């Protein structure tokens, strides 16, 4: 039953994010006179939301491959490559980046939507796509915690991957600004240089906290009790 649920969930979620990436890249075309950002250097790849949607599509494809060619055992002695890749991916990027994108987006929307998604974009960026890329990313990554187990990597490795990813994107944002003179997110325009540095530091810290949150949730759902139960047959033999 659990295995069938995992396969169905992973298949539907992979198709969902793959479609979101395809639709956004192909059909979400914003005229330059509406906003300079969308027509600036970098295309769709300017936005962390787009990066994350790609990450989620790739991750759930890996989950699907693991369902068929790997294992969803709670504590496998020798996990196959697909399982190792899945575990590393979800711990270091899948969960923290999805939660970071979703939480920061809706927090800024609550403060002032013009800072992240101006009303002028509504005719070009449909509401359902907005929820796929900013709401469902959080729902599906949390549901994945419940549907299938994972073994968290060493913190130094998991955090190293996450921090490296976020720093690469931070550098990419400044490359875009250097090339086009436009900040990817309008909130950057209203911050002074010192506040911008503080803003980046707070966001990086928040993203790191989300890594530990993911690890804690995983331990709650798939903690020592379940690991012990999975080892009982081996102990009896």
TrEMBL record:
Q: Where in the cell is it found?
A: Endomembrane system
**Topology term for the membrane:** Multi-pass membrane protein
Major location category of this protein: membrane
One GO term describing the cellular component? membrane
Q: Catalytic activity, per the record? A: 9-octadecanoyloxy-octadecanoate + H2O = 9-hydroxy-octadecanoate + octadecanoate + H(+); 9-(9Z-octadecenoyloxy)-octadecanoate + H2O = 9-hydroxy-octadecanoate + (9Z)-octadecenoate + H(+); 13-(9Z-octadecenoyloxy)-octadecanoate + H2O = 13-hydroxy-octadecanoate + (9Z)-octadecenoate + H(+); 9-hexadecanoyloxy-octadecanoate + H2O = 9-hydroxy-octadecanoate + hexadecanoate + H(+)
Name the residues that span the membrane. 48-68, 88-108, 128-147, 159-177, 197-214
Q: Which UniProt keywords apply?
A: Membrane, Transmembrane, Transmembrane helix
Q: Give the range the annotation lists for the signal sequence.
A: none
User: Which family does the record assign?
Assistant: Belongs to the AIG1 family.
Name this polypeptide is given: Androgen-induced gene 1 protein-like
Which organism encodes this protein?
A: Lasius platythorax
Organism lineage = Eukaryota, Metazoa, Ecdysozoa, Arthropoda, Hexapoda
């Amino acid at each position: 039953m659990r295995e069938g649920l995992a396969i169905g969930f992973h298949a539907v979620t992979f198709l969902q994010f793959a479609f979101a990436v395809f639709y956004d890249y192909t059909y979400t075309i914003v005229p330059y006179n509406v906003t300079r950002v969308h027509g600036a250097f970098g295309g769709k790849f300017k936005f962390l939301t787009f990066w994350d949607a790609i990450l989620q599509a790739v991750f759930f494809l890996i989950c699907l491959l693991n369902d068929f060619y790997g294992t969803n055992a709670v504590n496998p002695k020798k996990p196959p490559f697909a399982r190792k890749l899945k575990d590393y991916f979800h711990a270091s990027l899948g969960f923290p980046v999805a939660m970071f994108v979703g939480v920061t987006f809706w927090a800024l929307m609550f403060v002032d939507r013009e800072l992240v998604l101006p009303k002028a974009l509504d005719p070009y960026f449909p509401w359902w796509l907005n929820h796929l890329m900013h709401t469902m990313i959080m729902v599906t990554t949390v549901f994945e915690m419940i549907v299938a187990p994972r073994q968290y990597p060493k913190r130094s490795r998991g955090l190293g991957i996450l921090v490296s990813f976020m720093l690469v994107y931070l550098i990419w944002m400044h490359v875009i600004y250097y090339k086009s003179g436009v900040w990817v997110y309008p909130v950057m325009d209203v911050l002074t240089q010192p506040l911008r540095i503080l803003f980046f530091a707070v966001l990086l810290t928040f993203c790191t906290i989300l890594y530990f949150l993911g690890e804690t949730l995983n331990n709650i759902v798939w903690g020592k009790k379940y690991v012990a139960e999975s080892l009982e047959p081996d102990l009896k033999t």
